[in-house]
Specification:
The protein has two helices and ten strands. A hairpin with a 5-residue loop joins strand 9 and strand 10. The longest helix has 11 residues. The radius of gyration is 21 Å and the shape is globular. The N terminus is likely disordered.
Length: 194
């Protein structure tokens, strides 16, 4: 199979007057793929690279573990305790158990880092979720489900906080829920068609 090079075109808004459009720092470019598939060819140097995990800090590990295991159905696949912090690794195992031998060769792991004492410190303000100032940057985690409406109904019954319900906004096929620390989790269909 021949893979064509990936090219992007830079699209500027059309000028509203007959004057020429001058470059401006306030213009927001749109990038459009010029090929139907977005798969990039892997090089020999990157052929073994995988996205293994992402890490978020949590205030209360018991509340977070309950949320990720009971509400989202993830499995606690490893726990590493240190003097001042503990790491919890969660994943959707889906029939293939994650072990110490294969944990670093699989993809899709969520690491929760708990710095000891934050759960009982009344002056601790929590961590920045990344979606508000200060600390804007990190956006969200996303999971796919067979039936978004059924999943959201279940989240509602469990008392999960929503950032965006299916009925909110223009994108009626996705929702955002909040974990105990306020991190956003996007819920979208596993048969998404843009």
């Amino acid at each position: 199979m021949l893979i064509r090079p990936f090219r992007l075109r830079y699209i500027l808004p059309r000028p509203t007057s007959s004057r020429l459009l001058r470059p401006s720092p306030v213009l927001t470019p749109r990038y459009i793929s010029t090929r139907s598939s977005l798969a990039m060819p892997r090089t020999a140097e990157t052929a073994s690279f995988k996205f293994n995990h992402t890490m978020i800090r949590v205030k209360d590990p018991q509340a977070s573990l309950k949320f990720y295991t009971e509400v989202l159905g993830m499995d606690l696949v490893a726990k590493n305790e240190f003097e001042t912090f503990t790491l919890y690794f969660l994943a959707f195992d889906n029939g293939t158990p994650t072990t110490a031998e294969n944990r670093f060769s699989r993809e899709g792991i969520l690491e929760l880092t708990h710095n000891h004492g934050t759960e009982s410190d009344p002056s601790f303000q929590g961590y920045a979720s990344g979606n508000a100032d200060p600390g804007r940057g990190f956006g969200h985690i996303a999971i796919t489900v067979d039936d978004v409406e059924a999943a959201c109904a279940r989240f509602e019954q469990l008392g999960v906080r929503f950032q965006k319900r299916l009925t909110d906004g223009k994108m009626k096929h996705i929702a955002f829920i909040l974990d105990p620390d306020g991190y956003w989790i996007e819920i979208l269909p596993n048969t998404f068609k843009p």
